[in-house]
Amino acid sequence: MLTLAIIKPDAVRAGLAGKILAHLEAAGFAVRAARLVKLSPAQAEAFYEVHRARPFYRSLVTFMTSGPALALALQRADAVAQLRKVIGATDPADAEPGTVRKLYAESKEQNAIHASDSAETAAREVAFFFPEAELRELGGSR
Ligand code: GDP
């Protein structure tokens, strides 16, 4: 099963992409596709459409377009739930010790990593960054 992670612009800017990727690999995730992306405002708005009505939406879009981010299609058993566990709570202050956000995140908004929150979301979000044909070539499965 595949899920989508994004190492967010704060973490890429801080030179933490490699450490975070190593953390994910050590947790049993295999990289099936990777792309360094500089999201346009339209792309970030579409990706976070579900949050459009939230007070932090504009700020989130500005943050997510502030620099390159590393989108990853990750594979392992029970990938969606397992990745959510590995990244920790949205606010690093609430995240469990040893999680990616506890270790590497700066704030509730600049929280180092995104992970899909359900199987349906994962399918949509993986397709947002990686066309299915490309994933098949790379040996991923859905
Ligand atoms: P996630 O699934 O843990 O990433 O959390 P959400 O789906 O609820 O929120 C999406 C993203 O919006 C988070 O990862 C944060 O970057 C940002 N965010 C969430 N809640 C807040 C908030 O209360 N304030 C601000 N400034 N940003 C937030």
Keywords for this entry:
Alpha-Beta Plaits; 4-stranded antiparallel β-sheet; 142 residues; alpha+beta; globular; binds guanosine-5'-diphosphate
Task: Explain what this protein looks like in three dimensions.
The chain is built from eight helices and four strands; from the N terminus they run βααβααβααβαα. It is globular, with a radius of gyration of 14 Å. The protein has one domain (2-138): Nucleoside diphosphate kinase-like domain (Alpha-Beta Plaits, 2-Layer Sandwich), CATH 3.30.70. With 142 residues, it is an alpha+beta fold. The mean pLDDT is 95. It has helices spanning 9-13, 17-26, 41-47, 57-64, 79-87, 100-104, 119-129, 132-138, and strands at residues 2-7, 30-37, 69-75, 113-115. Helices cover 44% and strands 17% of the residues. The chain has a four-stranded antiparallel beta sheet, with helices on both faces. The structure holds guanosine-5'-diphosphate. Guanosine-5'-diphosphate (GDP) binds at residues 51, 56, 59-60, 90, 108-109, 111, 114, 117.
Mind sketching the topology for me?
Elements: E1 2-7, H1 9-13, H2 17-26, E2 30-37, H3 41-47, H4 57-64, E3 69-75, H5 79-87, H6 100-104, E4 113-115, H7 119-129, H8 132-138
Antiparallel strand pairs: 1-3, 1-4, 2-3
The chain binds guanosine-5'-diphosphate.
